[in-house]
Design goal:
The chain has 380 residues and is an alpha+beta fold. The chain is built from 9 helices and 17 strands.
Length: 380
Amino acid sequence: MSSAPAAEHGDGSYAGSDQLSTMLSAAPTTSDAVPFPAEFPEVPGTALAGRYLPGTLDLEVGGDWYDVLPLDSERLLLVVGEVTARGLAGVAPIRQVRDVLRAAARDNCDPGAVLTRLNQAAVDGDGWAASVICLIFDPAGGELRYASAGHPPPLVISGAELRLLYDRALGPLIGALPTAAYEVRDDRLEVGDRLLLYTGGLVEQHGAGADLLGRVRVAAAEPAERLPDLLDAVARVVTERSGHDDVALLALEAVESSGFALRLPAEPTKLSLLRKRLERFLVAHRVGETDLFDLTVAVSEAAANAIEHPIDPREPVIEVEVSIRDRSVLVTVRDTGQWRESTDAGFRGRGLSLINALGELVVRRTPQGTELSLRRRLAD
């Protein structure tokens, strides 16, 4: 069997093209029937990526979907679910789910209240059922609140450590019980932590769930600079299987919000860590490819200078601060040594010229060390 193709969206989300188009062409109000958002809301402190993988061509399109909505401009409501109805029968519940989610976002509901509303809509509707995971993420403190209606547990990726968000069922399926109650739990994501949400098609295949989840864990543990790279690795677990069901994937990463400060040993080997943190921060703030490349080059050069060139540093460390205000990026790099003048060979000259060509450069010499500031206006 062959898999339906997937089309990439600008925000890193993916959707099956052929089957999905067939389903939507037969359904009214297509914007509410699409099983993924057209774009993700921009909330500082978060990076998001999603993918919708339709089942193999001889299977009908299923009722898997995901959505992300902003709450009070600071928090995010994330929902992933799987309606038991298939094909066009699964479209109407997705529309109904979207209506309930918008109302819940307006009313600032907690995850348990969101699932309660969905359950009531299912009970009062056409008797559909669904597994759903609902989370609210507050990037300011990394707080994560969630509730589940019979849904597989998300995977938390913290460096090389992986864990399931929960290890037992937290509530019945949506539509299963008229008066169902949904437990709300709390967790926390540190900067750099990732959360992978998915529907059952990722790990359920003829009783092989444990083995498939193990393969997902291995895929998620692969080095992935950006969230789409993580989804690439996980998607291979699906596409390598014949006769696979539909799968919806949603990934979230906790990143620095308006800025970050990094204190590093003055060692060239630490520059890769700085570049990684910088790229994640800039990508999360929707910085374009040209600005991203130029800033990475400029900051790497400034940090390399701070590592290699100070005279008699008091401490073998450098400090890097990065912030974004009013579409301008401000970078400050400090060392703890004295200024070394340029030589005829261009020592401490050519590097500064390169940095200056990529932004507005200011160099300050202080008794504590040298401070380099770079400001760059981002393209609109």
